Amino acid sequence: MTPEAKFLYQEATRCNLENPWFTPREIARALDALSRMLAQSKMERWLEKYPGLGERKVFRKNVAVIMAGNIPLVGFHDLLCVIMSGHRFTGKVSSQDTILPAAVAKLLVKLEPALAERLFLTDRLPEDADAVIATGSDNTARYFSYHYGDKPHIIRKNRNACAIISGNESKAELAALGTDVFSYYGMGCRSVSQLLVPESYDLSRLAEEWKPFRYVTDNVKYLHNIRYQKATYLAGNTPCTDEGFFLLRRSEQIASPPGVLHYMFYDDHGKVRGHLENNRDMIQCVLAQPDSSLPFSQIIPFGRSQYPEIDDYADGVDVVAFLTSEL
Q: Whole-prediction pTM value?
């Protein structure tokens, strides 16, 4: 193990004390996803889309990035975009994820000392930014829009993923879909929170194929959340199915709480297309078997939602283009 890997490992082991959702399994998942994203060949193809970026004059604008804390290192892609665009990165870390961003920043500066003048982390909202990239809930998005409305900005709200089941999936495909549902305990913006299933679909197939994910109930916060949501549904006479390690609830709402998976039935693809189109602003990505008739340009295969490519920009907004054209 290299000294850098050893340092990152040591820092990662402390994260669960700060945030019980950040278990070793989920931290390893996040680091694995980033390592795949940062493969040299992928980086080179990505940068080719922005001719002259490597040679462009460094403008050194101060770009404030307000990072979420729902999954480990969720703000890293924005950090990468800011640095590669030649600007100064000021990251407001989430109280739920302070250790890993600091560790990664330290490693980056060690690898490239010049970044010490361009990479800063803070626990306060930056006030002197030239541009702002902020990720949060619908409520915080309203505040960010008001607070930074006079500056060039990208403001992100709540989003989730939807999965469309045809009924023809193999066991392997359904098992892969479980990764999209249970990774990060369902708290990522690319986590599947709603299923669209055919009218006659046997939902019990899901729990059967997802048994390997029962480990999620080892997390006390996740287990308590299931119990709380079930009690709330019972008190409100809201039907739900308790599968032991997740709840199934019929609902047309995209977002669902951790431990709860929404589903809705469809009888034709017109209903699917209409639902996706009407909720486009709440959907980060769509998972399904290949189907060109769906109103999304990119359909992700089951099992791949938590492994975005380097040019899979959140909300479909090209951050590098924003940083090189708006500033």
A: 0.95
